[in-house]
């Protein structure tokens, strides 16, 4: 029988190609002149002597080597060839028994990474490395218990990051789904009930027509610079995402066609959607065209419609319109992003516009049983009159 001291001090004689140190039941440690040490189990199958590679001594201890030996012995006693099973497992990418949570999570991440946007991929990797790996990363996923995962998520909650904890649970669920075919039960079941409830975060948005009209009047009276004021005026008319609006470029605007074309790479999409998706087209009503033409002389040669105050080569900051809304006294009632919810609600409730046309204007994913593969409609012809009716409706609200 071998002991750990014997294994650690084992050397291969200079006159030999290898040295084999036997443990019980045909388990042995093979030592090479280079100093490398590996575990093997010797067995016979169909009249032939074979050996099964268990792993290097640097990664597999004597205790674990014996456990692994017992496992493959059971396969052999059942009439199976352990090496054939091992080969099949590699071909089907079956998870190794000793795989840790961090190894599996990184494999899941690499499998998903190519379908995500760069920013989403970075955020996800940063979270699992920061919040999950320090607590459960080294644990074999086959042995990991739900209470251990809960402990990791509770640590996130303890710092007040309820949304992050909820997202951490979602990641763990996807990791377990990734290895579901390897016979590993989902250890995340029941955890959500033990966490604080996260209900999501809605952007502040005014949906009452009268109150929205008062906001529009206040915007017209804004005393800030013309660049921010124009962005503030266009935000409710076009109701696009703040990032897209503030980075709008003159090259994206076709004044003759009254159309703003946002490249797919700048949209909120998966990496596949950014690389191969179609642009997002935003019809520009007459009021928007007028505002843009009035602004153009004030921004010089900047490529950005809403050029930065200090640098013409940069757009205005994300905080610019938000600060303007607070200065008008509406910061807590109406967010920049909230203009999307305001428009979506009033266009449906007050103007009775079709849902599918509004979702296309918002650049939301297609709500279709067949998915985007079959429904690629962008409803540009239908959205042109909708956007003009919306802009006219906003003028009516201001006039009341």
What keywords describe this structure?
400 residues, Double Stranded RNA Binding Domain, hpI Integrase, Chain A, four-stranded antiparallel β-sheet
Would you write up a description of this structure?
This protein is of the alpha+beta class and 400 residues long. It has 3 domains: 4-91, Integrase, DNA-binding domain (Double Stranded RNA Binding Domain), CATH 3.30.160; 101-194, DNA polymerase, domain 1 (Orthogonal Bundle); 209-399, Orthogonal Bundle (hpI Integrase, Chain A). It has 16 helices and 7 strands. It has a 4-stranded antiparallel β-sheet, with helices on one face. Strands 5-6-7 form a 3-stranded antiparallel β-sheet. It is elongated.
CATH architectural category of the largest domain: Orthogonal Bundle
- Following the backbone from N to C, one meets helices and strands in this order, namely HEEEEHHHHHHHHHEEHEHHHHH
What is the number of helical segments per DSSP (H or I, 4+ residues)? 16
Instruction: Give the class from helix and strand content and strand pairing.
Output: alpha+beta
CA distance, first residue to last residue: 94 Å
Q: What gyration radius follows from the Cα positions, in whole Å?
A: 31 Å
Query: How many independent structural domains?
Result: 3
What kind of assembly state do the chains in view correspond to?
single chain
- The total of beta strands comes to 7
Question: Which fold name is given in CATH as the topology of the largest domain?
Answer: hpI Integrase, Chain A
| Highest-level CATH class of the largest domain | Mainly Alpha
């Amino acid at each position: 029988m071998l002991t750990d001291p014997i294994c650690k001090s084992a050397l291969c004689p200079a006159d030999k190609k290898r040295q084999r140190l036997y443990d019980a039941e045909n388990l042995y440690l093979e030592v090479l002149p280079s100093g490398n040490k590996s575990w093997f189990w010797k067995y016979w199958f169909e009249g032939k002597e074979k050996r099964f590679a268990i792993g290097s001594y640097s990664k597999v201890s004597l205790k674990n080597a014996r456990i692994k030996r017992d496992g493959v012995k059971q396969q052999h006693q059942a009439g199976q060839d352990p090496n054939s099973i091992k080969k099949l497992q590699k071909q089907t990418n079956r998870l190794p028994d000793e795989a840790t949570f961090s190894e599996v999570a990184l494999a899941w991440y690499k499998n998903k990474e190519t379908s995500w946007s760069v920013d989403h991929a970075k955020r996800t990797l940063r979270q699992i490395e920061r919040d999950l790996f320090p607590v459960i990363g080294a644990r074999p996923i086959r042995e990991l218990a739900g209470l251990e995962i809960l402990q990791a998520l509770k640590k996130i909650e303890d710092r007040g990051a309820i949304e992050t904890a909820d997202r951490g649970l979602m990641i763990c669920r996807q990791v377990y789904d990734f290895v579901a075919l390897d016979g590993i039960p989902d250890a995340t079941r029941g955890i959500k009930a033990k966490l604080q409830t996260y209900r999501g975060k809605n952007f502040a948005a005014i949906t009452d027509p009268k109150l929205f009209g008062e906001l529009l009047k206040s915007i017209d009276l804004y005393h800030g610079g013309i660049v921010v004021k124009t962005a503030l005026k266009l935000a409710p008319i076009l109701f696009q995402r703040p990032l897209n609006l503030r980075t709008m470029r003159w090259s994206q605007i076709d004044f003759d066609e009254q159309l703003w074309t946002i490249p797919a790479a700048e949209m909120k999409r998966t990496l596949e959607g950014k690389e191969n998706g179609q642009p997002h087209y935003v019809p520009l009503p007459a009021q928007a065209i007028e505002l843009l033409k009035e602004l153009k002389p004030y921004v010089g040669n900047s490529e950005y419609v809403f050029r930065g105050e200090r640098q013409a080569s940069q757009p205005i900051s994300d905080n610019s319109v938000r600060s303007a809304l607070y200065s008008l006294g509406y910061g807590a009632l109406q967010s920049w992003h909230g203009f999307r919810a305001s428009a979506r609600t009033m266009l449906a409730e007050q103007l009775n516009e079709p849902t599918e046309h509004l979702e296309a204007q918002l650049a939301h994913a297609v709500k279709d049983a067949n998915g985007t593969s079959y429904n690629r409609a962008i409803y540009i012809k239908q959205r042109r009159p909708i956007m003009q009716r919306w802009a006219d409706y906003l003028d009516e609200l201001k006039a009341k």
